[in-house]
Sequence to fold (776 residues):
Amino acid sequence: MIMRNFFLKIIFLNFLIFINLTGSLFSNTIQPGPLSYEEIQKALILSKPGDIIKLGEGVFEFEDGLSLDINNVTISGEGINKTILSFKNQKSGAEGLMITSNGVILKDFAVEDTIGDAIVVKGANGISFIRVRTEWTGGPKESNGAYGFYPVQSTDVLIDGCIAIGASDAGIYVGQSERIKVLNSIARYNVAGIEIENSFFAEVIGNISEHNTGGILVFDLPDLPQQGGHHILVENNIVRNNDTENFAPEGNIVGNTPNGTGIMVMANQFVEIKNNEIKNNATAGILIASYQDEAEDKNYNPIASNIFIHGNSLINNGFNVDKVRASPISEVINIHGNSLINNGFNVDKVRASPISEVINGKVPDIIWDGVVPLTEWIGIRSSKRIILGDNYSNSDTPVFANLKLMTKFLISYLHKVDTNYENYRGELKSIQPVVFKKD
Amino acid sequence: MKIFFKILIIFFLSIGSSRAETFPLLSEYNFFQDIKGQIPNEGVVPYHIANPLFSDYTYKFRFVSMPDNSVASYNHEEVFDFPIGTTIIKTFAYPVDDRNLKKGFELLETRLLIHKEEGWVPVSYIWNDNQTDAEIRFIGKTIETSWIDKNGITQSVRYRVPNINQCKSCHQLNKVIKPIGPKGRNMNLDFLYKEGQKNQLEYWESNQILTNLPKRKISKPAIWDNESFSVSERARAYLDSNCAHCHRKGGSAGNSGFYLSLEQNNGVALGIRKRPVAAGRGSGGMAYVIDPGNPEDSILLYRMASTDPGVMMPELSRSLNHKEALPLIYDWIKEME
Fold:
């Protein structure tokens, strides 16, 4: 018995040493203060898998970026508006918080005014953002960082209950990743609210994306290690009032997003856009486009296919097309009538010729550029590009337009926009829910 | 009861193994006979590399320490295969007066990469005010200091000692930490040893710390500031050593698809008419990473010439501009067609 006690004591002692070494098991919450940068960065470096790093209520002010490279650590604040990591005076580090380890959980805090991106996650197997906010507090500005949430080359990405405001590229951006869920989040005053880029198997469900330049973007771009984005489900989102003028620094792809775009798909395959409420987006409700810059990348497919659009409610979109960024669209629309009459707004007297396809100065809610491979255009081959189920629109003008840009550029005198919805009606198998890998 | 014992032993061993070779003070490793003067002990070999990374004009003193009777294996394009137990040592310092190095140096930090069973482990030591020793530091530090540059002008700098994660940021390749500098093609240079001037590769081989040297003649590296090489050779050499540790497949910037290793020969991957992907305001309003013939419209040069942390490249290790290198990159892009 004595022997046993002796060992128990040693074990207990050992346990204490262990706690001392890790400094975490019973560690107190880190509070804002002059030493908090060092305290947090130290905790991030010396943490052990399974640790929870707790951050107190208040504003933490940092001059340098933070980083975490230990697996399965949780960083937990007191609330999305209570624990604030402010990088207003950031002097070094290209982002606020960088995570390079697997299975990290971030919850209940905010990252504000970083000099570059807010939270970057690179190459993680498993990352969860829960009730986290990223914001540039001075409103939409070109000098804001590019991304709020920026997981890249990661798998099993969960973004739930988050808020992203003011990013000069995308508020919530997931790039070159696999198995992604963006749920119940809010994106406002970003260039792109939510963007899924060069990614496989994603769900974007139950979010609100408003007052951005573009609400939800699903893009695939060339010359990147992972491309050929596919299987993206965009369901039950509210995509409305995307009315912030594009403020992306020039040169960036997202700078091409037309002002007032609801949902835009570029060069992806198997995208299902289902049961969304898409309202008051000036250029278009849903825009399906090919990648139009020249790309030398032979492995890249610039053309969208298997885009299934159904059950959406499309209200008052396409009332003022962005003439600069949606130039192929506005050009085509201008040939066949004019979108710009728009009940007395901004009448373009030169180009306001009689209206044929486009009635009442309003462009259709759903627009496809109609770009297909040459073989398909000639009619040698065919494949599924845009498939329309039932969609509700309050518009008494055509709901859908295939701009047939191929024809326009190749034999322009034969060119005619196709607004016959029934030509595209069909059904596609629904995209299966994303299932994260269990370790 | 025995199981408890075993657990205890395993526990202590596990603490031991991960910490055994990491000391709180630099002096405890016994690398130097004169630590302040950076004079190494017998068996600790000083070396230098072609085209060192620009780190705010610091001087760097490099050494390698390998276990007795062990040997590294030559690799031309990647880092030598060093045996377990190797430590790579690098001290960062500002000269008091860059016009006269005899006035001595202010030692800032000494970084070690220790090759343990579980892999390379980075650790940094910060020099004390008296410059008598350096103390371990995991979380980095800001050092506000100054030096007199080659033109006699006092330069001040907010020098950042990286934290351990930042070490990894540059040193990781396919999620594993690796040294960057001692690759075959960076090492084929002469060095002034206490025995006299010798080629480093020959010296290492004759001291039996390097094996598997190729029979063929090993090419001499282009040196970025040596005008006997072409502008293109010099620019590529500079970009390789200053950018390609991240800008390569499997590197920290692997997601960009923008790769600057010397071996890279795909134009778009090299940045030629490559669109920015996630640069944000780092694009500076320009359409291409490199717009051939137009350095003013090339994001590459814009980011190299910036000191705004949200724009500048590299992201780490620099807060000042490398004024001497920018014209080279300018000329390189200018002469492209």
